[in-house]
Design brief:
The protein is an alpha+beta fold and 235 residues long. A five-stranded mixed barrel has the order 4-5-6-8-7. It is elongated and about 105 Å long. It starts with a helix and ends with a strand.
Length: 235
């Protein structure tokens, strides 16, 4: 009887142990699933934080750029107001215009005079250069000009007849209108390979008339090339 009782007790204990192990394993699996879910949520939260930080940095950068642009506008406005005080009432001149008579902020076609380089002495006065700002769309022939004894390496531009009349021109300046564009290394890629020539349509926002009696040229600044057609390449 005692042996039977002991045997039954062992069986009961074994069954209880199995149930306990099953319960523990089930609880572990549930905890593991819950842990994985929490880990996934934390990873998503981390990625969201990174995304928020990136957007914040972009906003900061954009704000800095906007502030810089605003400062530039303020400086330009201050300069314009200063020049207004110097120039007094400004007028619009016919083209060609008188270089001696034109004043700062006077207008010629769509361009405004912002600087006037003069040589003045007791018995002599001459205008050496005139600097204009204003946006114009123009077209004409372009070509790569090699570095030589008389000129630097550059892109030269000769406007067609319709565009040529848009550029400010000084009375008595019998030269054909042509110009170069900025630094060659900075803009040469816009005009193809060395030696290329052809037709181009572009937007400019700056034009300098060089009136000194030297081997120099007028200068313009390119805003954007709208269309370019290569007509050939000089070897």
């Amino acid at each position: 009887m005692n042996k039977y009782f002991i045997l039954m007790l062992v069986v009961i204990l074994m069954l209880c142990s199995c149930n306990a192990n099953s319960t523990i394993e089930k609880s572990y699996n549930e905890l593991r699933i819950e842990y994985d879910e929490i880990a996934d949520e934390l990873q998503l939260e981390k990625e969201r934080n990174i995304e928020i930080e990136e957007k914040y940095n972009e906003l900061v950068k954009t704000n800095e750029e906007q502030n810089e642009y605003v400062e530039q506008l303020k400086e330009a406005l201050d300069y314009a107001n200063e020049q207004m005080g110097i120039a007094g009432d400004f007028i619009e001149h016919k083209n060609p215009f008188n270089a001696d008579e034109i004043k700062l902020l006077d207008r010629v076609n769509d361009m405004i005079l912002v600087d006037k380089l003069e040589y003045i002495s007791d018995d002599y006065h001459s205008v050496k250069g005139l600097e204009f700002y204003g946006t114009m769309t123009v077209s004409g022939e372009y070509f790569h000009q090699e570095d030589s004894e008389y000129s630097r390496e550059c892109i030269s531009f000769v406007p067609d007849e319709e565009s040529a009349i848009l550029f400010p021109k000084v009375i008595g300046d019998e030269r054909n209108i042509w110009m170069t564009f900025g630094e060659y290394d900075e803009i040469s890629d816009l005009f193809g390979e060395q030696g290329e020539y052809g037709y181009v349509e572009l937007i400019i926002d700056y034009y300098y008339i060089d009136l000194e009696a030297t081997e120099t040229s007028n200068v313009a600044n390119i805003v954007k090339v709208l269309n370019k057609e290569c007509e050939g390449i000089n070897n």
